């Protein structure tokens, strides 16, 4: 089975948005979590958007050179249509989407924890 990764924008993100840095995010996931394997499905979760928009999941398709993370295209995915997302959906938060919450309360790891050195590490 192909690995799948869900990324999302933190409410307390001090830097570039996930959407604007998606190629770098994918490269970090590949390097830090997947032993340099570029063969994985990447999803982005947007907990809130413009007024009236509901939280949305996107599957990222790479339209650039094969094996490279370039020319991303976002395809809206209904969580109920994907078994992996259907299972994961119950654990995804729509509010309080911050590094502190994900690390301390939800016990999830953050790839670049240097930005959050004052927070406890998940155990």
Average of the residue pLDDT scores:
77
How many separate helices? 3
Widest sheet: strand order?
1-2-3-4
Domain count: 1
- Estimate the global geometry from the Cα principal axes: globular
Number of strands: 4
Strand content: 15-25%
Helical coverage, percent range? 10-25%
Poorly predicted sequence stretches spanning 5 or more consecutive residues: 113-123
What string gives the helices and strands in order? EHEEEHH
Task: Report how far the terminal alpha carbons are from each other.
Answer: 27 Å
Please state the CA-atom Rg, rounded to the nearest Å.
15 Å
Helix and strand composition category: alpha+beta
Biggest sheet character: 4 strands, mixed
List the main descriptive attributes of the protein structure presented here:
3 helices, 21% helix, alpha+beta, disordered C terminus, 123 residues
Secondary structure topology:
Elements: E1 3-8, H1 22-33, E2 40-46, E3 56-62, E4 72-77, H2 83-89, H3 99-105
Parallel strand pairs: 1-2
Antiparallel strand pairs: 2-3, 3-4
Characterize the structure shown.
The protein has 123 residues and is α+β, with helices and mostly antiparallel strands. It has one domain (3-116). Helix content is 21%, strand content 21%. It is built from three helices and four strands. It has helices at 22-33, 83-89, 99-105, and strands at residues 3-8, 40-46, 56-62, 72-77. It has a four-stranded mixed sheet with strand order 1-2-3-4, with helices on one face.
């Amino acid at each position: 089975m192909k690995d799948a990764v869900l990324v999302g924008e933190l409410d307390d993100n001090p830097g570039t948005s996930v959407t604007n840095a998606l190629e770098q995010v994918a490269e970090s996931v590949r390097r830090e979590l997947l032993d340099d394997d570029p063969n994985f499905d990447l999803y982005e979760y947007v907990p809130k958007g413009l007024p009236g928009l509901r939280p949305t999941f996107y599957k990222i398709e790479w339209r650039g050179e094969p094996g490279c993370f370039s020319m991303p295209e976002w395809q809206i995915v209904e969580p109920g249509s994907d078994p992996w997302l259907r299972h994961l959906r119950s654990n995804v938060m729509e509010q309080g989407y911050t590094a502190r919450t994900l690390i301390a309360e939800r016990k999830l790891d953050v790839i670049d924890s240097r930005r959050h050195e004052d927070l406890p590490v998940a155990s």
